[in-house]
Amino acid sequence: TELKEDASMAAFYLISLALGVMIVSLKGSNVDLLHVLFGTVLGLDDPTLILVAGIATLTLVTLAIIWRPLVLECVDPTFLASVSRAGGPSHIAFLALVVLNLVGGFHALGTLLSVGLMMLPAATARFWVRDLTPLVALATCIAFASGAIGLLVSYHFGAPSGPAIILVAGAAYAVSVLIGPAGGIVTARVQRRHLEA
Question: Is 173 within 8 Å of 122 (Cβ atoms)?
Answer without folding.
Answer: no
